[in-house]
Amino acid sequence: xxxxxxxxxxxxxxxxxxxxxxxxxxxxxxxxxxxxxxxxxxxxxxxxxxxxxxxxxxxxxxxxxxxxxxxxxxxxxxxxxxxxxxxxxxxxxxxxxxxxxxxxxxxxxxxxxxxxxxxxxxxxxxxxxxxxxxxxxxxxxxxxxxxxxxxxxxxxxxxxxxxxxxxxxxxxxxxxxxxxxxxxxxxxxxxxxxxxxxxxxxxxxxxxxxxxxxxxxxxxxxxxxxxxxxxxxxxxxxxxxxxxxxxxxxxxxxxxxxxxxxxxxx
Length: 266
Fold this sequence. Notes:
8 helices
């Protein structure tokens, strides 16, 4: 689905960024993995090359406009851009008890990195008259959620940026689409939280699952599969929207709906 496409991934050393990189490679994309941690990025690149994928790595600070532009200028073309860097958010306090810096940090990081990487990719794609820019948010981008601090407003801001940018670059053949994830239990932050928090975190995960319509949460492969589809020609009429992969959570919180046995009728 992505044969011969050049895909740039920021924050490729993270668990989700790495999973999406692997999915892109399996579909034939040529990968340009970037990050500030060379060890994690190189490790992911080696795994992709080991199964026959073509992969290049570079140290790029996705919060530095000069570094972003310099990296893109060295590529033959940019067909796909995806930003998966962390926002350094804190989500364990009511807003009324939160330190202003803890609230503002994810807002600043999210908007700065998304603006810089998305607009840099857009300029390159506008010149070539094609390309796909993917952004990533989570459940609080579509529904009020308690104790998420600045993360929720940051998600809303990124989704708005996606729509607005899409409206400007669409006439040049460039698509911009956001993926709204429900949080993946197999991602590194969740795995580490479970190891450190034990039963308390497991109970929290059960609460998140109960909030969904499907009574399950999306895994990283689910997000990666969606990213592959959106980056492919099969989605070439989709732009300026958010694809919701929260298992229904942002349409309604379903924790009060009991699961009842299916009744067969004669």
